[in-house]
Write a structure and sequence with these properties.
70% of the residues lie in helices and 0% in strands. By secondary structure, it is mainly α. It folds into 2 domains: 81 residues, no CATH class; 311 residues, no CATH class.
């Protein structure tokens, strides 16, 4: 059991030098963190194809391997054997660096994700800030790809990143502050451990909604897939990429979607927290993956059921709805936390479920009132628009038949 929980300790007990044991432990941890998401991606490709086929009344992969399970491996072989083409006039160094940057942006996030009570890459005191900073590398890689490809369609696709991804980072970051405030910590480990008594999704459902929508847009997937709108931009920023370079963009996108599910699990649904974790810490990884899978399936459901939005609709939805809502939600949460503190409702033991109930009820009622106010505002706005449209229809000139 000690070898499972602490490899460095196990190696030292076996007579290995302490420095070498620590190096081997860290090295294997880095390899695991860098390899595990890539291996999971192979399975996720099959899961997403089957899920999309089920929703759209299709069969999905069913030829290569049992139930089509080996289809992703066949795709990897195909991409490995395809010719890598570099367009004439491309900025070769930047063109070749863009795909690994996309993958690295996702893998670096996993460095601060607690997989179990004792298994995590590093416990940064600014883990939440680190996530926001590292996630921006993906946006940079898309800009690099579009600019270096020497293709106007790829460049237009990259410019849409500036308009879409950077815009949706605003509500995403504001929503991220809420669990930081609830846990009184920016550490991902601290945020997870603060949810022993109650998951934050019950205290801050609006923040969870905002983070989920923002993360969905960050991946550039439907209904926010304007970056790769095939009907308008051929294939977007990766138009000029083929072979394994294209596969790295592809893998980065799939990893990003599942990583968003893992982040939702860590920030709002307790991460690795679950039954029997105290007896066997490694089972925390099972709970984390199970919770992340639920959020991942919801993301697939949204992608395969909603139609693609226009660029003006996407931007208006962000700046006129999500950003104001995220600001108001942040202020309301801060105010309610002060009320809870002044009223003496702060739990003495954050890990006690019963002691967390008063605080949770106050925050939940505040979120429900806020949600009701949003619905009233949307109803009034829709009513005004309908009245304005009706007035325009009545004032329009009537032409006789034959005019």
């Amino acid at each position: 059991m000690d070898c499972i929980n602490n490899l460095s300790l196990c190696l030292r007990h076996s007579g290995v030098d302490a420095g070498l044991a620590e190096f081997v432990s860290i090295f294997l941890g880095v390899v695991l963190v860098a390899t595990f998401p890539l291996l999971v991606t192979i399975l996720l490709i099959w899961v997403e194809r089957k899920f999309a086929a089920r929703i759209q009344d299709r069969i999905g992969p069913n030829r290569v391997g049992p139930f089509g399970l080996l289809q992703p491996l066949a795709d990897v072989v195909k991409l490995l054997t395809k010719e890598n083409i570099t367009p004439t006039g491309a900025d070769r160094p930047i063109y070749n660096l863009a795909p690994p940057f996309m993958v690295a942006a996702v893998l670096l996030i996993w460095a601060v994700i607690p997989l179990s009570p004792i298994h995590y890459g590093v416990d940064l005191e600014i883990g939440a800030l680190y996530f926001v900073a590292v996630a921006s590398i993906g946006t940079l890689s898309v800009l690099m790809a579009g600019w270096a490809s020497n293709n106007k369609y790829a460049l237009l696709g990259a410019f849409r990143v500036v308009a879409l991804l950077i815009s949706y980072e605003v509500p995403l970051a504001l929503a991220l502050i809420v669990p930081v405030m609830l846990a009184n910590s920016m550490s991902m480990v601290g945020i997870t451990e603060a949810q022993w008594g109650m998951w934050f999704v019950f205290m801050a459902p609006i923040a969870a909604f905002l983070f989920f929508i923002g993360s969905q847009a960050e991946t550039g997937r439907a209904p926010f897939d304007l970056i790769e709108a095939e009907s308008e931009l051929t294939a977007g920023f990766n138009t000029e990429y083929s072979g394994m370079k294209f596969a790295m963009f592809f893998a980065g996108e799939f990893m990003h979607v599942f990583t968003n599910g893992v982040l939702m699990a860590v920030l709002f649904t307790g991460g690795w927290i679950g039954p029997f974790v105290g007896e066997l810490p490694l089972i925390g990884l099972v709970w984390l993956m199970a919770k992340a899978s639920v959020w991942y399936i919801i993301a697939l459901w949204v992608r395969n059921t909603l139609p693609r939005l226009r660029i003006d609709q996407v931007m208006l939805f962000n700046w006129q709805f999500l950003v104001p809502l995220s600001i108001v939600n942040l202020l309301v949460t801060a105010f309610l936390l002060q009320v809870i503190k002044m009223a003496g409702l702060t739990p003495a033991d954050p890990g006690n479920f019963v002691q967390n109930i008063p605080q949770t009820l106050v925050l939940l009622v505040g979120n429900l009132v806020e949600f009701g106010g949003v619905l009233i505002m949307l109803r009034n706005r829709g009513r005004r628009e309908r009245i304005a449209d009706a007035a325009k229809g009545l004032s329009a000139p009537v032409h006789a038949v034959g005019d």
